[in-house]
Amino acid sequence: MGMPVLAGRGIAPGDDTGERLAWVNQTFVRQYLAGREPIGARVAWKPGEAGADDAPRWMRVVGIVADVRGNALRIDEPPVVYAPYVQREANWIRFGTLVARVKGDPDSYRDTLARAVQAGDPALPLGEVASMRDRSDRALARDRFMLQLVALFAGLALLLGAQGVFGVVAFAVEQRRTEIGVRLALGARPAQAMTTLMRSTLTPILIGSALGLLLTVAAGRVLSSLLYAVSATDPVALSAAAVTLISAALLAAWLPARRAQRVDISRTLQR
Fold first, then answer.
1. Contact 57, 87 (CB under 8 A)
2. Per mean pLDDT, which range of 138-142, 203-207, 220-224, 266-270 is the poorest?
3. Residue 244, in any domain of the structure
4. Domain containing 187: what range?
5. Which residues sit opposite 82 in a β-bridge?
């Protein structure tokens, strides 16, 4: 399955015969084997859980594997014991999952694997034949949908914000048309007029971005429910969002500011 072995050893030929062996995950070590050497420790199921008799079924731990989120991203992995399948004598076990590593497209092996299982035991009911990618996609479907929805609204908010900046700056340019004409008449270059407008636009953009970052940090608890393995206050993500917003705002401001370079001095001064 590709689970990394953190200590001890992995599975080897012959582990399904002889001494009963077990591999445990990190959570199991923290919860039950803290303060002692886990490799070589003996663990057992509760009496009656591994078989019909009341005697414990002892196993020797030979390896520690990393925790694996097998059910959902936001559900912590419980303590887990991995053991050879032949050690599962419990009468309450009614189902199992067979995993096969294949070469090429896994979907092309569906019928072959189904026939192989039926050939081993024709009376065995076969529930589902699916690839790991299919199972992962189903498990992540809700999270992906929510993040795509958030991304859609974020994109719309960015477009509306850029449109608002464009409108505000265009209005400011119109209000300062006489001032720009006077500056140009006194010898100012058109590029200087554009720089002045861009500088006056940049200040409120930076202030708005700073306020937005503060509000994002304040709303971190709400956003954390939609994130996995990323902090709601991740500096890289927040910096990227701020740069994106500032760049979009400057682009929206650049068009009307560029128009200011083409102010007709004679018509402006006649007003």
1. yes
2. 266-270
3. yes
4. 137-269
5. 23
- Longest Cα separation, the chain: 105
Residues 61 and 153 in one domain: no
pLDDT per position as a tens digit, 172-211: 766 776 777 677 677 777 777 777 777 777 888 888 888 8
Neighbours of 233 (CB within 10 A): 14
Q: Does 48 lie in the same domain as 150?
A: no
Among 34, 86, 89, 81, which Cα is nearest to 62's? Answer: 81
Rounded to the nearest angstrom, the gap between the alpha carbon of residue 58 and the centroid of all alpha carbons in its chain is 39
Report d(CA 150, CA 226) in Å as an integer. 9
Helix (H) or strand (E) holding 44: strand 42-44
Same domain, 155 and 80: no
Find tokens 């719309």 and name the residue.
156
SS3 186: coil
CB 30 within 8 A of CB 97: no
- Is 45 in contact with 53 (CB distance < 8 Å)? no
pLDDT in tens, 69-114: 876 777 778 899 998 887 776 665 667 788 888 888 888 888 888 8
SS3 category, 86: helix
- Helix ranges, the chain (H): 26-32, 110-120, 132-175, 177-185, 190-218, 220-224, 235-260, 265-269
Check residue 92 and give its pLDDT. 58
**Pair (58, 145) in one structural domain:** no
Answer whether residue 115 is part of any domain: no
CA atoms within 13 A on the CB side of 53: 4
Give the whole-angstrom CA distance, residue 13 versus residue 32: 28
Q: Are residues 249 and 185 in the same domain?
A: yes
Q: Is the pLDDT of residue 51 over 70?
A: no
